[in-house]
Design a protein that fits this description.
The chain has 347 residues and is of the alpha/beta class. It contains 13 helices and five strands. Helices cover 45% and strands 8% of the residues.
């Protein structure tokens, strides 16, 4: 890997939501501050909604770290579940195994545990990540959790985090009561080219890099266009760019490397509607073969199985051609005697 080559202690562009690498752009800083304020002000339900890869989970881990010594926390990400399974996951986060309990008993046990935490002076913060996957019936169960409160304060804080589909669900008439309880909803914006530069340098610095910038100044516009300013895309791009630069024994990611990585990562050329033509090398096809009406070959996109069979035929033709070439070289020409000299002859 390239870590040693560039003098890094660790991988700077990993795929896990490590709070140490959190870069707070203006939008990320505002979202984190809003969530923190919402908990401090006892607002109950909070929301964080953004496109995939924008850093929601990293922000949530960073937020929970701030309350590590003053709150009991639960982080739920198993959101494709029933209401009963949801309550069982929640109780499990509190250290209570609820197998065999009916739904009413689980509610009673959860309320009792909340009161214990409140008497101990602890907040209870529940983060539900990928909440857009929750069925409406489970979201209604989440709403009922807000009934656990004392006359003076909420017994728990619930953060619903998810993709824009979560906003669609919250806006539906059937979930109007839940939407009314979500007092703070915040989103995240893509990074600008300047923020991408700061983001990359920040992660490299956390990973131990010391030295001149690893990316030439003129490449950030291209990176911004290709990654759309989404942190997860930027991480993937930088991993590939540094890997390529290391393989080429260069010390800086230049424009050529950026263009090559963009070409390598451009998945649009692999989609089913990509403009692809294959030359008909006498490959017999099962459908619409032969030629078009104008007498020209009918170039057609092959299915995976047809492509595999086609490549097998090409490989067989190449092998036959190589065998013929080998025989021509090894066979005596007419009128001449071809004899290879060996070490025995030389002696």
């Amino acid at each position: 890997m390239y870590e040693k080559y560039f003098g890094l202690r660790e991988q700077p562009f990993g795929v896990t939501p490590d709070p140490r690498f959190l870069y707070l752009s203006a939008a990320h800083r505002e979202a984190l501050a809003s969530l923190y304020y919402g908990i401090e002000a006892n607002r109950g339900f909070l929301g964080l909604i953004a496109k995939p890869g924008m850093g929601k989970t990293t922000i949530l881990f960073h937020l929970l770290e701030k309350f590590r010594t003053s709150a009991r926390t639960a982080f739920l990400f198993q959101t494709q579940c029933t209401s009963r399974e949801f309550m069982r996951f929640l109780l499990s986060e509190l250290g209570y195994e609820s197998d065999g309990l009916d739904f009413v008993r689980m509610h009673e046990e959860f309320n009792r545990r909340l009161l214990q935490e409140a008497r101990a002076g602890n907040r209870f913060i529940v983060v539900i990540d990928e909440a857009q996957n929750l069925e409406p019936s489970v979201l209604e169960t989440v709403r009922l959790l807000s009934d656990f409160e004392t006359p003076r304060a909420k017994l728990m804080h619930i953060i619903l985090a998810g993709q824009p589909e979560l906003a669609d669900k919250l806006a539906s008439p059937g979930l109007a009561q839940l939407r009314q309880r979500v007092s703070i909803v915040h989103g995240l914006e893509p990074l600008s080219p300047d923020e991408i530069k700061n983001y990359i340098e920040h992660r490299l610095r956390i990973a131990g890099y010391e030295g001149e910038p690893l990316f030439t100044p003129g490449v950030y516009e291209d990176i911004a266009r290709f990654t759309e300013g989404i942190p997860r895309n930027i991480n993937n791009f930088c991993f590939n760019a540094l890997s390529l630069t290391c393989a080429l024994k260069k010390r800086i990611v230049d424009s050529d490397a950026v263009k090559e990585v963009i070409a390598d990562l451009d998945i649009s050329k692999l989609t089913s509607d990509a403009p692809t033509e294959l030359v008909d090398m006498n490959y017999p096809r099962n459908r619409n073969t032969s030629r078009a009406g104008n007498g020209q070959p009918n170039h057609e996109i092959l299915s995976p199985s047809e492509a595999a069979a086609y490549m097998q035929q090409v490989a067989l033709k190449l092998k036959n051609w190589q065998d013929s070439l080998d025989k021509a070289i090894s066979s005596p020409r007419r009128g001449h005697t071809v004899r290879a000299r060996t070490d025995v002859d030389r002696s």
